[in-house]
Amino acid sequence: MRKDILISEAEMAAARAAAGRVKEEIAPLGLTYHIESYGCQMNDHDSEKLAGMLEEMGCTKAADKADAQVILFNTCCVREHAEQRVYGNIGALKKRKDENPGLLIGVCGCMMQQKAAGDKLFRRFPFVDMVFGTNELHRFPNIFESALHEERILAVRDIDGEIAEGLPVLRSGTFSTNVTIAYGCDNFCSYCIVPYVRGRERSRDSGAIVEEVRSVAAAGFKEVTLLGQNVNSYSGDDGVTDFPTLLRVVHDSVPDMNRIRFMTSHPKDLSPALMDAIAELPRVCKHIHLPVQSGSNRILRLMNRRYTRENYMDEVAELRRKVPDIELTTDIIVGFPGETEEDFQDTLDLIKQVGYSAAFTFMYSPRKGTAAASMAEQVPDEVKHDRLQRLNALQAEILKEGNLKYIGRTGEVLVEGCDRRAEPMAYGKLSNFKMVYFPGGEELIGSLRTVEITANQNNSLIGRLID
Ligand code: 5AD
Ligand code: SF4
Question: What residues does 413 pair with on adjacent strands?
């Protein structure tokens, strides 16, 4: 991973100056905004930065999308389905824009980093005011200022990205939040568009990460997730600080952060040192999201994943040896080009052997420009649907069985919310990411409580409070 390059101070200062001017200009208007975020946590976190900048410019969050005077779509292009949803939702605003030309509409995020995507979007939806890419996020105040002055603005810069530090962030959670440690991806899995739209891997300075974790802990957050497309290849801004070292530094420097999570881990880079760090650091959660994608070596090779099923299973065994109570979650793609029934059976067999506590399962979606999109032997949709259903059914069964071992055990839950549909049930996750429901009210939200598991129900566990 290369050394990070910070966006120039001059550019950041120009953005801050624009924010100041906009604030003065729109203060009397009291504008409200709505941000629609698609895709992964990286995007959600970018949306928190957009919200931070909008608030800094004097806008406030609209109670409802229907009342908002500024609407931003932060898009995802990992699968076609996400793109179609965005198009549908932008199209639905045409009538509102005709009736209220003052409505400001922006489209940003990964979809806009694709080749000529901005031009195409303006042709299809001429009523959109702003289009900007992921590498222009820090310049949003400049972009917004132009749009306010009725200029239609298209701002996308090449993906060989830099890092913008110091943007304001309006965090949407109150006790759990995300901190980005690295941007971009260099892996070029053959199905994946991310390296093309998010650019080369670049790591943030470990000092800046620690400072951010410290500041969110001081603001009352109890759980932080360190985010990157592939956290295991984090290399610091010096090119030498590896991820296990970062984890130890964050853990030891911020003792009042109760829980530290991280995602996503690429199996090819999962080191013994990381396993040791998870085992040894008490506030690092005993959970790893380790996408396997397929259980067939032939398909893994075609996917350019650079591990075999055997490597993967060895890692899982070693992880469980070092961290006996760890739970694993995964991502799986069905219907990758050339996937036969036999390959698919290998995937079913692998999930039985591993026993994931959750699997995020996807039908392969060809993405223009990626290697897999032009592979022969694309799998028909009906076959993909059928495999997805069988995979999900098997995973549900495995989960039900796997949950039984928890009955009678105790663990600590960070309470996220309360379901009031019947008897009030508080819910939250154990350190290992298992969701637990137990009788309790809103007053528990945000606290860490010890529960005893008494039963299992569908995907989650049922418990009772014992502290
Ligand atoms: N089609 C289907 N799923 C995909 N993913 C990434 N690209 C595609 C694609 N083209 C899935 C992978 C990845 C997750 C975030 O999305 O499983 O781990
Ligand atoms: Fe995509 Fe592979 Fe990078 Fe994950 S590791 S973002 S799947 S290219």
Answer: 449
Q: Is 221 in the pocket of ligand 1 (CB under 6 A)?
A: no
Give 65-107 pLDDT, tens digit per residue: 999 999 999 999 999 999 999 999 999 999 999 999 999 999 9
Distance 435 CA to ligand 2 centre (A): 27
CB 420 within 8 A of CB 436: no
Please compute Rg for the chain using Cα positions: 23
Residue 179 backbone phi and psi in degrees, to 5: -130, 125
Place of tokens 């979650």: 329
Q: Is the CB of 191 under 6 A from ligand 1?
A: yes
Cβ of residue 189 lying under 6 Å from some atom of ligand 2: yes
Distance between Cα 193 and ligand 2 center (Å): 8
Q: Is the pLDDT of residue 30 over 90?
A: no
The angle formed by the CA atoms of residues 230, 236 and 242, to the nearest 5 degrees, is 65
Instruction: Compute the half-sphere exposure of residue 329: CA atoms within 13 Å on the CB side of its CA.
Output: 17
Adjacent-strand bridge partners of 226 = 179, 262
Is residue 376's pLDDT more than 50? yes
Whole-number Å distance, alpha carbon 5 to ligand 1 midpoint, is 28
Number of C-beta neighbours around residue 341 at 10 A: 10
Nearest to 466, CA basis, from 435, 440, 432: 440
Of residues 312, 305, 400, the one with CA closest to residue 358: 400
Burial class (CB in 10 A: 0-12, 13-18, 19+), 92: exposed
Q: Ligand 2 mean position to 80 CA, how many Å?
A: 16
Instruction: Tell how far the Cα of 185 is from the centroid of ligand 2, in angstroms.
Output: 6
> Do the Cβ atoms of 243 and 195 come closer than 8 Å?
no
pLDDT of residue 161: 63
User: pTM higher than 0.85 for the full model?
Assistant: yes
Helix (H, G, I), strand (E, B) or coil at 332: strand
Q: Which of 44, 111, 188, 192 to mutate to test the pocket of ligand 1 (most atoms within 8 A of CB)?
A: 192
Residue pair 30/55 in contact (Cβ under 8 Å)? The answer is no
CB distance 97 to 131 below 8 Å: no
Residue whose pair of structure tokens reads 């509102």 in the numeric block: 96
Ligand 2 centroid to residue 186 C-alpha, Å: 8
User: Is 209's C-beta closer than 6 angstroms to any atom of ligand 2?
Assistant: no
Q: Is 336 in the pocket of ligand 1 (CB under 6 A)?
A: no
Peptide bond into 329 cis (omega under 30): no
Strands 448-457 and 410-419: antiparallel
Q: Which atom of ligand 2 is nearest to the CA of 264?
A: 4
